[in-house]
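Input.
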Amino acid sequence: MEKNVCSSCKKRITNIEGSVQFQCPKCGKSTITRCKNCREIAAKYKCHDCGFIGPN
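Output.
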């Protein structure tokens, strides 16, 4: 998965304030990328390596 694309809505997040990237909280292998909007509305994302679905 491209690192500059939100894992939930698939929008490009390059230079978008409030965007974050973090490792999967379950396996730590995959990078999860979230835009500000998806973080605010708690949109679901899925890890491509282990299938973890968040946010919890």
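The chain is about 10% helix and 20% strand.
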